[in-house]
């Protein structure tokens, strides 16, 4: 079993590469943001609660997020591991994830893969995407720069913890999609 924490700022190609990893290694992706959006769309109690935080740009309380994550991890799957996306976001969540993975799967996080792309390239990519995606947060350069800044502020302490454990690996996220995928595969093969 292989458990990966995947990091990447908006525009880094994280979604594309997550898809490659899922297929290559038969993994299940757990994205806390997607799970919240699913609950909001289906108007569940969890969705209503989460929405009140998400709409204000705040983090959903840890206990709510962690309970949802545990439920998802407990679902039967034939996947051979997990990609965690959007979790952990804080030092507290990093430690929580370690004990959850231990309790539920009797396993560990193997690696934290971080896609690195220069800010100027991210801005250009997102502005380009904004022309066709219809996402208003991709159309405004100031909003884009703010999202990138936020990302670094939030992930710094998580990255530090994985660095201390020797599990943090940065991958250059600029280049051909297939080349970047190969680099990710190589790092995963090392810890498999
Ligand atoms: P994302 O799609 O990962 O950007 O997440 C969208 C929103 O969901 C965030 O802005 C938070 O409000 C909430 N959220 C996602 N993941 C977490 C998490 N690990 N802890 C708390 N809130 C989260």
Automatic annotation (TrEMBL):
<comment type="subunit">
    <text>Monomer.</text>
</comment>
<keyword id="KW-0545">Nucleotide biosynthesis</keyword>
<feature type="binding site">
    <location>
        <position position="175"/>
    </location>
    <ligand>
        <name>ATP</name>
    </ligand>
</feature>
<keyword id="KW-0547">Nucleotide-binding</keyword>
<feature type="binding site">
    <location>
        <position position="93"/>
    </location>
    <ligand>
        <name>AMP</name>
    </ligand>
</feature>
<feature type="binding site">
    <location>
        <begin position="58"/>
        <end position="60"/>
    </location>
    <ligand>
        <name>AMP</name>
    </ligand>
</feature>
<protein>
    <recommendedName>
        <fullName>Adenylate kinase</fullName>
        <ecNumber>2.7.4.3</ecNumber>
    </recommendedName>
</protein>
<feature type="binding site">
    <location>
        <position position="147"/>
    </location>
    <ligand>
        <name>AMP</name>
    </ligand>
</feature>
<dbReference type="Pfam" id="PF00406">
    <property type="entry name" value="ADK"/>
</dbReference>
<comment type="similarity">
    <text>Belongs to the adenylate kinase family.</text>
</comment>
<comment type="function">
    <text>Catalyzes the reversible transfer of the terminal phosphate group between ATP and AMP. Plays an important role in cellular energy homeostasis and in adenine nucleotide metabolism.</text>
</comment>
<feature type="binding site">
    <location>
        <begin position="86"/>
        <end position="89"/>
    </location>
    <ligand>
        <name>AMP</name>
    </ligand>
</feature>
<dbReference type="GO" id="GO:0005737">
    <property type="term" value="C:cytoplasm"/>
</dbReference>
<feature type="binding site">
    <location>
        <position position="37"/>
    </location>
    <ligand>
        <name>AMP</name>
    </ligand>
</feature>
<feature type="binding site">
    <location>
        <begin position="11"/>
        <end position="16"/>
    </location>
    <ligand>
        <name>ATP</name>
    </ligand>
</feature>
<dbReference type="InterPro" id="IPR027417">
    <property type="entry name" value="P-loop_NTPase"/>
</dbReference>
<dbReference type="GO" id="GO:0004017">
    <property type="term" value="F:AMP kinase activity"/>
</dbReference>
<keyword id="KW-0418">Kinase</keyword>
<dbReference type="InterPro" id="IPR000850">
    <property type="entry name" value="Adenylat/UMP-CMP_kin"/>
</dbReference>
<feature type="binding site">
    <location>
        <position position="32"/>
    </location>
    <ligand>
        <name>AMP</name>
    </ligand>
</feature>
<dbReference type="GO" id="GO:0044209">
    <property type="term" value="P:AMP salvage"/>
</dbReference>
<dbReference type="InterPro" id="IPR033690">
    <property type="entry name" value="Adenylat_kinase_CS"/>
</dbReference>
<dbReference type="GO" id="GO:0005524">
    <property type="term" value="F:ATP binding"/>
</dbReference>
<feature type="binding site">
    <location>
        <position position="135"/>
    </location>
    <ligand>
        <name>AMP</name>
    </ligand>
</feature>
<comment type="pathway">
    <text>Purine metabolism; AMP biosynthesis via salvage pathway; AMP from ADP: step 1/1.</text>
</comment>
<feature type="region of interest" description="NMP">
    <location>
        <begin position="31"/>
        <end position="60"/>
    </location>
</feature>
<keyword id="KW-0808">Transferase</keyword>
<feature type="binding site">
    <location>
        <position position="129"/>
    </location>
    <ligand>
        <name>ATP</name>
    </ligand>
</feature>
<keyword id="KW-0963">Cytoplasm</keyword>
<keyword id="KW-0067">ATP-binding</keyword>
